[in-house]
Specification:
The chain is mainly α. The chain is built from 6 helices and no strands. Keywords: Membrane, Transmembrane, Transmembrane helix.
Length: 137
């Protein structure tokens, strides 16, 4: 049953292929297509996300805030440093900061491989970026 269906399908395909002919475009096909192509290109004008007036408003706001804080607190800055405890910085031993941290061997290997892969990608990315810049200039 399946063989008969395959043979029938094959004979139908052969008949269709014999009756069809190769189509070719007309002689002025390229000219007509190019007539529809828009040759006018407009350059993209750079517009910053924050305009100059926006930066001026932000800068003015920061200056106004600083002046406002200065007016409220006055010039007595001794109160600011009385509340900060700088002894924490002096008593912290940086050499023993990670002494209690235990890393598994697998984690150490993963960090090593990650570092090596990162170092390997830097020259590769630099090559591709340089190549792209050479092609555009």
């Amino acid at each position: 049953m399946k063989d008969n269906a395959d043979r029938l399908l094959e004979s139908v395909v052969e008949k269709v292929m014999k009756s069809s002919h190769i189509e070719s475009p007309s002689s002025d096909f390229t000219k007509r297509v190019m007539a529809h192509v828009n040759t006018k290109s407009t350059a993209t004008v750079y517009q910053p996300l924050i305009s100059k007036t926006g930066w001026l408003i932000v800068f003015s706001g920061v200056i106004a805030f600083v002046i406002y804080i200065y007016m409220i607190t006055g010039t007595d800055t001794s109160k600011w440093f009385e509340t900060i405890d700088f002894n924490v910085i002096a008593t912290t031993d940086i050499t023993n900061l990670f002494s209690k941290l235990k890393l598994e061997q697998v984690t150490s290997y993963a960090m090593l491989v990650f570092g090596l892969m990162l170092c390997a990608q830097i020259p590769i990315l630099k090559y591709f970026i340089d190549k792209r810049q050479r092609n555009f200039s």
